[in-house]
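Batch manifest line 468
LIGAND: manganese (II) ion
JOB: complex structure
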Amino acid sequence: MKDLRDYIAKCEEEGLLHRIKAEVDWDLELSHIAKLNEEKKGPVLLFENVKDYDTPVMTSACTTPEKLSLIMGMPRESNLTQLMEKWVEKGKEKIPPEWVDSADAPCKENIITGDDVDLFKFPVPKFYPLDGGRFWGTSHFVVTKDPETGWVNLGTYRAQLFDKNHVGIQFIKGKHADIMLKKYQALKKPMPVASIVGCDPLLFLMGAARISAFDCEYDIAGSIRGEAVKVVKGETVDLPVPATAEIVMEGEVDAEKFMDEGPFGEYTGYYSGVGTDPRNFIKVNCITHRNNPIFWGTTVGRAVTDTHMTMALTYGSTLWQQLDAMKIPGIKSVYCPPEGSGRFLAIISMKQMYPGHADQVLTAAISTEMGAYGLKTVIVVDEDIDPWDISRVLYALSFRFQPNRSQVIKRGRSTPLDPSLPINARWITGRLLIDATIPYDWDEKPIPVVLDPDVVKKIEARWSELGF
Ligand SMILES: Cc1cc2nc3c(=O)[nH]c(=O)nc-3n(C[C@H](O)[C@H](O)[C@H](O)COP(=O)(O)O)c2cc1C
Ligand SMILES: [Mn+2]
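JOB STATUS: finished
ARTIFACT:
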């Protein structure tokens, strides 16, 4: 899969695409259709007739494991944990991107610079009534480069449309683009950026993934695809952008300039604060796009939508990778439910091999880079329980977990988006570690109730005779 068009074609082939030909307003109507569709776990939507525009808009591209499987190049029936397994495996290798000439890059079919830049020419949706405006960047990612090392980063940071050539950008502290921006600030230079809308959806997953600092998301995408991502140099920025991108917005961010941004209906299902906040913005100097470009957005908002599925896959995989890197034996699988947006709750299945092993896994999870930021509840279960099988997890919580013995509360770094904390005190959170395993060190373990296998076999042979 090379681009968004391949993905749309693949979804159509698989019966997972719905084209909407009736006119739909970009102002709330489009996002609300997408949101209701995502809540029903519906198909990928292609809005072909957006009011005031010729450009179609795609939404709901990642809402189900089926869609994510297509993106990951896995069998359609794969579950999230299986997709994460592939992510963890392939994430160990890197295939750097391959440069192509502008002549071979469809994203250069149209080049708009200077005064001609007008972001209002694109059908940028407004998502929720209390949002501060229209959001250019939801299913997009921002490409930046470290001015010292040349490390290239892809990150998905929401981008609000301000006027014809300015968009707000929210780099939360410590995110990779934020780290880079601080370096440009020290050099007293603006940071060149490119925002990519519409591409091989794997690249969007990469933008939303917590790949380690200094690693380039293009290299990991190459490894998962088994083929280098084709990139071309921006027109006005020295950054690699996907050659087959639908729309590339090029510009710069001055660390010392701010405009009022937000609010935006977050993936927690709440607004992150009250009203607007001063934030950095992109001054747009150039737009390049394919002929008949396709715009792409996602609804965010309350769970479960596209965004939650994306984060369950990418954040969950990162947690698993980082546990792997700690070389703790016995970790069977990891599941970070989309209902918790892949980041507030983690369930880990393990084979216990020594006393205290389960405690080690619990504390390790919150000591990873991923788990040390925002993760609030970690549950470990024995290897006979699949972490994605929630009824089995509830079984372990009911019959193996003992509050007197096997829960610990810690404190740590919170995400400022967590609505369970007061709006002005969101830097520190509690973390609940729950051991729902049978203690390894018990000499006498509970005796399980099992059926007699011979009797079971006999009954199976008589099953239809018994009138079932
Ligand atoms: C739809 C969507 C919107 C997001 N918006 C933001 C945002 O506004 N700011 C932010 O820092 N992270 C946001 N994230 C999370 C980041 O994409 C994620 O943390 C990613 O790891 C950032 O890339 P980085 O690790 O290279 O910094 C968003 C994710 C998604 C899927
Ligand atoms: Mn990164």
